[in-house]
Amino acid sequence: MSTNVEPAIIVHGGAVVFPGDKKDKASEGTKKAASKGYHVLTKGGSALDAVQAAICVLEDNPAFDAGTGSPLTSEGDIEMDAVIMDGRTLNTGAVAAVKNVKNPIVLARMVMDQTQHCLLVGQGANKFADEQNVPKEPNENLITEENKEKLEKYKNSYGEAAENDFSARDHDTVGAVAIDKEGNIAFGTSTGGITNKRPGRVGDSPIAGIGGYADNNVGGISCTGHGESITRVALAYDIISLMKYSNKSTQEAADYALAKMKEKLRNAKANLEAGVIGIGKDGNPVYSFKTKQMAWAWAKNGKLHNGVNFGENNTYTITTDANGEYKFDKDE
Fold first, then answer.
1. Of 218, 275, 223, 276, which is closest to residue 249 (Cα–Cα)?
2. Helices (H) and strands (E) in the chain, counts
3. Burial class (CB in 10 A: 0-12, 13-18, 19+), 282
4. How far, in Å, CA of 173 to CA of 10, rounded?
């Protein structure tokens, strides 16, 4: 096992066009999440713990499509998916179509740590949450007025065609990839899905190899975008395979796989927008996206980088104030 690796973490807040002030909120949210995970790493914490901590920050932020602020199903309910994976052991835990849980990523970690299974869904996932004494979160604490209005507007705009039209759906899935001092890599992804989805619909996010993957010998990936399209090409493992068998760097593999995704699905009736983040075994964070925007942030060597638009890359020095709150001093 490698030792004395420089720890790093990268997070994303979805491949989507952020309307109004949500761009700034998403930018700030990813900065806070990356800093939280980086703090775990610099204190000697594991990549798994850093990924979980970062995603909890994103799930608690209503600017993102995960946890609080998840979009609504066609019946006006919330069903959430999450996954976490250990690149050292290849152990993974995931939940899908889970309800009334504030942080699905925590429940996914429990599936990995407390069961012999990889994925629990629906009522079974919620029963497991009860067995683990996970506090129930009332829907009124998870459903925002914004998402109520979004569902109503979507149905009014698309009518009977709303169920099959993906052109204006949310893709604000959140995710994180980290490497710790021991060289261990982990990834996690969490989502509330897409507005007006059928109850029981599950996209790519909670499925290892599709919504993300982690292997210490190669690297880690977390995906975001239209789940059905990502599922059809097994995007995460496609990238991992390019790194493993074609000797491409993480950046090269991500760029290539996203470009090829549209070509492979040219006859599919689907929204082909997607984005990814990753860290290779070399410890370098990367991101790539084919959408107009993707919120991302990564931290390494005491520096934090973030952006939303193409070509945007803000750099900060990470500090804390007297109350232990994170501060970002922008580099000139």
1. 218
2. 9, 14
3. exposed
4. 14
Give the whole-angstrom CA distance, residue 120 versus residue 132.
13
pLDDT tens digits for range 127-180: 999 999 999 999 889 999 999 998 998 888 765 544 554 444 555 799 999 999
Global pTM?
A: 0.94
CB-based contact 166:271 (threshold 8 Å) = yes
* pLDDT score, position 166: 47
Q: How many CA atoms lie within 13 A of 251 on its CB side?
A: 5
The DSSP line for 191-214 is E---TTBPTT---STTSBTTTEEE
Work out the end-to-end distance of the chain between its first and last CA atoms, rounded to an integer number of angstroms: 38
Residue 251 neighbours by CB under 8 Å, 6+ apart: 286, 288
319 is catalytic: no
Which of 173, 189, 191, 291 is an active site residue? Answer: 173
Domains of the chain: 8-330 (3.60.20.30)
